[in-house]
Amino acid sequence: MSTWRRDLAAARDRDPAARSSLEVALLYPGVHAVWVHRVAHRLWKQDHRFLARMLSQLARNRTGIEIHPGATLGPGLFIDHGMGVVIGETAEVGENVTLYHGVTLGGTTLDRGKRHPTIGDRVIIGAGAKVLGAIEIGADSRIGANAVVVRPVPRNSVVVGVPGQIVSRSRASTEVPEPDLDEVELPDLVGASLKSLLKRVDELETTVTGHTSADAIRPSTEGVWSGLDFSI
């Protein structure tokens, strides 16, 4: 299957709203941005730099997705919705990667060398996430929405928070083109830490006084917080 067809198939497979290949080919800005980039990148490699940049800017104005023509994009890339996505000049994106709107693959230096991330195969990057610097995101990893990632991520990891915290998966992700898109399963590191601290405080209070504090603010067993302090 050609690279362009794989891009089209990726959108069909990963967007349940897609009803036909014709609809995707004509109406999906993420697909259009990737296809225009493939032409612009070829011009860039042939040293037609001005023409390549002009083409990329036309695509940016049309789709809201900014991809530098120097960036390298693997086949099967799907940019869902796409508005506000920025991919820098030295970024490298592997096969079957999924990016959501507001994602930035950006740089952290003014050096002209490698300054943008390298994204492994089958990586998913959630809406609003920022991956910054010449770092590598390992294959089969998942970046949570609005995470800010500034250090390398081992393969098969999950990253959440600001700055991004790396969580190893308890179950290995299978190496198949279909990504795991269930954002509900992302870990809540702050919540888990608070729950652990509250449990330890309860144990200490029980040891010292024989009971826990009745006025302690804590969530219910369903995870719902309540209290007069939260009234608005």
Automatic annotation (TrEMBL):
One of its GO terms (molecular function) is serine O-acetyltransferase activity. PROSITE patterns: HEXAPEP_TRANSFERASES (PS00101). CDD domains: LbH_SAT. Pathway: Amino-acid biosynthesis; L-cysteine biosynthesis; L-cysteine from L-serine: step 1/2. GO terms for cellular component: cytoplasm. Its EC number is 2.3.1.30. InterPro entries: Hexapep (IPR001451), Hexapep_transf_CS (IPR018357), LbH_SAT (IPR045304), Ser_AcTrfase_N_sf (IPR042122), Ser_O-AcTrfase (IPR005881), Serine_acetyltransferase (IPR053376), Trimer_LpxA-like_sf (IPR011004). It catalyses: L-serine + acetyl-CoA = O-acetyl-L-serine + CoA. Pfam families: Hexapep (PF00132). It is an enzyme of class 2 (transferase). It is found in: Cytoplasm. Keywords: Acyltransferase, Amino-acid biosynthesis, Cysteine biosynthesis, Cytoplasm, Repeat, Transferase. GO terms for biological process: cysteine biosynthetic process from serine. Belongs to the transferase hexapeptide repeat family. This is Serine acetyltransferase. It comes from freshwater metagenome. The lineage of its organism: unclassified sequences, metagenomes, ecological metagenomes.
